[in-house]
Amino acid sequence: MAARHDSQDDPSEAGSAGLPEFGDHIDLMTFEQILEMDDDEEERDFSKSIVFGFFEQAENTFKNMDASLDNKDLAQLSSLGHFLKGSSATLGLTKVKDSCEKIQHFGASKDETGTTDVTDKELCLERIKKTMGPLKRDYNEAEIILKRFYHDA
């Protein structure tokens, strides 16, 4: 479950005072670990480069996912889902990570939890298509929140 703060001035967690409310899109504790690597808390050059690098990586991955869907390449979709799951988890993008994990499982011909085999390739592709909409929506919402945080929106 994502850490939530009702007040921006709640110093109950080290380093979280003054951070915006990220809601359930971004896990605050995970994101703070990235912020701790910044040398300058005003500029935040290091964490900003990681986050904006992720944006570029995600956009390219979405293009590759769309092409893999067109080609009905489940193995590639599973691989791309796994790839984006890892990088989104590193930043604490909870909803993006969860959708990517589902795509990884569907691409591996499994159910969304990865526990049950699914033999119908078309059903797996349809489930991936249905997951792509919420994935891109959640990504866009997280991107807006993070760009605002970095004063780049």
3D structure, described in words:
By secondary structure, the protein is mainly α. It is 62% helix and 0% strand. The chain has helices spanning 28-35, 45-70, 74-91, 94-107, 121-149. Helix 4 (94-107) packs antiparallel against helix 5. The longest helix has 29 residues, at 121-149. The protein is elongated.
Descriptive labels:
about 150 residues, mainly alpha, single chain, about 0% strand, about 60% helix
Q: Secondary-structure map with pairings?
A:
Blueprint: H1 28-35, H2 45-70, H3 74-91, H4 94-107, H5 121-149
Strand fraction band?
under 5%
Q: Which stretches are low in confidence, meaning pLDDT under 50 for 5 or more residues running? A: 1-17
Structural class of the secondary elements?
A: mainly alpha
- Write the element-wise H/E pattern from the N-terminal end onward: HHHHH
Distance between the termini: 27 Å
Largest sheet: none
Rg estimate, integer Å: 17 Å
Shape: elongated
Number of strands: 0
- Give the % helix: 55-70%
Q: What's the tally of helices?
A: 5
Oligomer: single chain
Average of per-residue pLDDT values = 89
Provide a compact summary of the structure.
By secondary structure, the protein is mostly helical. The protein has 5 helices and no strands.
